[in-house]
Every structure is written in structure tokens, then in C-alpha cells.
Amino acid sequence: MTDDPMKLGLDDAALAVHPTVFAADALAGKRVLVSGGAGGIGRAVAWLAGRCGAELILTGRDAGKLDSAVQAMTAAGLQVQGHVVDIRKPETVADLFAGPVTEAGGIDLLVNSAGGQFPQAAIDFSAKGWNAVIDNNLNGTWHMMQAAARHWRDTSRPGSIVNIVVVVEHGLYGVAHTIAARSGVIGVSRAVAVEWAPLGIRVNCIAPGAIETPGWRVYAPEARATYARSNPMMRAGTTWDIAESVIWVGGTSGGYVTGETINVAGGSQLWGETWTTGRPDWFQPG
Ligand SMILES: CCCCCCC/C=C/C(=O)SCCNC(=O)CCNC(=O)[C@H](O)C(C)(C)COP(=O)(O)OP(=O)(O)OC[C@H]1O[C@@H](n2cnc3c(N)ncnc32)[C@H](O)[C@@H]1OP(=O)(O)O
Ligand SMILES: NC(=O)C1=CN([C@@H]2O[C@H](COP(=O)(O)OP(=O)(O)OC[C@H]3O[C@@H](n4cnc5c(N)ncnc54)[C@H](OP(=O)(O)O)[C@@H]3O)[C@@H](O)[C@H]2O)C=CC1
């Protein structure tokens, strides 16, 4: 890992050629919408889906980041468009589906990778900070899920949703607001996996462990330095680890899977600790 924010995780050059288990036509004829598609994990998902033959629609808040992702993927021959959408604003999400998604001919897979939080002891959260994280991660993800489900219902086509969450059972501290939000996403995903099965819609979650991305900039270097040893495999994961799991469960390979949350976390759901705020004296070994 490096402290250069531009060099956290795999860059476009690496994502363009990274080996994959998937065939070049695994998603041929499919259209994939990735929120947070210019971020670390979303960008890797987009590259993999595009390299498997899918058309891509990427969304995010930062137009410059979106442009750079679209340019890099276009230069590699992928079919991709980018749109500024703040997932916290249901009206902009509705505009995305009524406009670009419909004009493109619809989508087959929605990957919700937009999200984030800040590290802070829970006892110090302000009401505004708590609300910001809940709004971004729970409400924002829900707005995208519901808009996609309505799109598929109204166009009589099947669909698949993959929500990127965090490991909520154990071992991730200093981000209790995001644990609450992501537990909500996991809960609603299980609920609508049943409600929406008659519509041909599958809903699953991927819970990444420590995955080196530009998103890590929000954590102090001392905290980040411990992340690789937060799991029994004693290493950080890559955005490609997450991308391959997303495409597996979101694509036809996961066709009989719904309502699941898959930890792709090096076993950190079972062993290890990540203190995003630094480990307090109370929990120091010895
Ligand atoms: C076992 C697994 C191991 C995993 C290890 C790593 C775990 C997870 C890693 C990741 O998820 S990495 C990638 C994720 N990316 C990010 O997290 C992006 C960074 N975060 C944000 O962009 C923001 O925090 C936000 C959550 C999206 C909120 O943004 P918003 O624009 O709505 O809010 P702000 O205006 O910035 O702030 C609102 C409010 O929130 C409080 N607040 C914000 N930042 C902090 C902070 N650093 N410390 C304390 N409080 C904060 C604050 O109350 C803000 O209001 P004001 O006080 O500014 O008025
Ligand atoms: N990296 C890790 O170790 C882990 C990450 N995760 C989760 O995976 C997901 C992706 O994280 P990662 O790629 O690492 O982080 P990044 O910060 O690189 O990417 C997150 C993306 O989400 C977008 N985003 C955030 N809020 C909004 C919003 N309100 N509307 C639209 N877009 C938004 C950002 O776009 P823009 O910059 O344009 O605003 C950004 O590109 C997040 O939910 C994260 O919490 C979970 C566990 C571990």
C-alpha cells in the first residue's frame, strides 16, 4: 500500500489486463449499471463487466472522476457512459432511470457500490454525521434498489441487484454508523429477495474485507497500516477479488442465489479486528 492517494489499489492500466476466470462473452448482450462506478471497487466491477461484453452505465457525484473512468474504458474499446447522480436524492435517481437507463434500452444488473463513511468513536457522532452516513448508505442504496425493481417490473424483464456492504457480524470498529446502515441494507435485501422473486429479480450483497482503494484516504495512515493483518489470510484484498465475486453472484452463474450476503473478506468475519480509529488501550493485547 502507498500513501499516494492516486495509487491506492489497482489502476485502469491494471484493471484493463488483470487475468479473469470469466469468458470474454460472459455478459454479452447485457447492460450493467454501477453506482460509485468511478471509485475503487465500482471501477473494477465496471472494467470486469465491460471486458465480459456488457454495456456499462456508471454513476457518481464527481464528474471529473466519471470522465476519467469513461475515457479509460472507452479507449480500451468498452461501451460505457457516465452520469452524475447523487444516490441520496430520489429525484435524481428517478431521472437516471427515466432518462439514460431507458434510452439505453434498460439494464440487467445493478451494482450498488456508492457508499462510504468516516471513522469516529460512536459516542462522539453528531446527529448530522450519523444522518449523513445512514442517508448515504441505507437510504441511497434503497433509492437505487427500488428504482431498478420498478424499472424491471414496468418493462417485464428480469434483473439482478448486488449491494456492496461491509462485514457487519464482527471485527469492524469505529464505524458504527455504517454497521447500522449496512445491516439495514442486508435486512432489506433479504426481505425483497422474497418479495421480488415473482418479478424475476434477485438481490444479493457482497461484504468486502479490507480492500485497498482510494476510499482508504479517509482513514489515518496508522489505522490503514493495520488493515492487511485484520484477517487470517494476513493480507488486504484487491478490487478484482470483489469484482469477480460481484459478477459471479450478479450474473447467470449466480442464477439460483438470492437473499445472500457473501463475505469476501479473507476470513475477517471470523477472526481479526479492524479499528478504523486506532485500537483503544483497553483492547491492547498483554
Ligand atoms: C473487516 C473489514 C475491514 C475493512 C476496513 C475498511 C472499512 C471500510 C472501508 C471503506 O468503506 S473505504 C471506501 C469508502 N469511501 C468513503 O468512505 C468515502 C469517504 N466518506 C465520505 O465521503 C463521507 O464521509 C460521507 C459519509 C459520504 C458523508 O459525506 P457528506 O458530503 O454527506 O457529508 P459531509 O458534509 O462531509 O459531513 C456531514 C457531517 O458528517 C460528519 N462528518 C463528516 N466527516 C467527518 C469526520 N471525518 N469526522 C467526524 N465527523 C464527520 C460531520 O458532522 C459533518 O457535518 P459538519 O460537521 O461538517 O457540518
Ligand atoms: N475499500 C474497502 O476496504 C471497503 C469498502 N467497502 C464499501 O465498498 C463500497 C465502495 O468503496 P470503495 O470503492 O472502496 O470506495 P471509493 O470511495 O473509492 O468509492 C466509493 C464511491 O461511492 C461514490 N459515492 C459515495 N456517495 C455517493 C452518493 N451519495 N451518490 C453517488 N455516489 C456516491 C463515490 O463517488 P464520487 O467520488 O463521485 O462522489 C465514490 O466513487 C463502499 O460502499 C464502501 O464503504 C466495504 C468494505 C471495505
TrEMBL record:
Enzyme class: oxidoreductase
UniProt GO molecular function: trans-2-enoyl-CoA reductase (NADPH) activity
GO biological process, one term: fatty acid biosynthetic process
Coiled-coil segments: none
Keyword NADP among UniProt keywords: yes
Keywords: Fatty acid biosynthesis, Fatty acid metabolism, Lipid biosynthesis, Lipid metabolism, NADP, Oxidoreductase, Peroxisome, Phosphoprotein
Source taxon at top rank: Bacteria
Its EC number(s): 1.3.1.38
Location in the cell: Peroxisome
Associated pathway: Lipid metabolism
Principal cellular location given in the protein's record: other
Catalytic activities: (2E)-hexenoyl-CoA + NADPH + H(+) = hexanoyl-CoA + NADP(+); (2E)-dodecenoyl-CoA + NADPH + H(+) = dodecanoyl-CoA + NADP(+); (2E)-octenoyl-CoA + NADPH + H(+) = octanoyl-CoA + NADP(+); (2E)-tetradecenoyl-CoA + NADPH + H(+) = tetradecanoyl-CoA + NADP(+)
InterPro entries: NAD(P)-bd_dom_sf, Peroxisomal_t2-enoyl-CoA_red, SDR_fam
Assembly behavior: Interacts with PEX5, probably required to target it into peroxisomes.
Function: Participates in chain elongation of fatty acids. Catalyzes the reduction of trans-2-enoyl-CoAs of varying chain lengths from 6:1 to 16:1, having maximum activity with 10:1 CoA. Has no 2,4-dienoyl-CoA reductase activity.
Identification of the protein by name: Peroxisomal trans-2-enoyl-CoA reductase
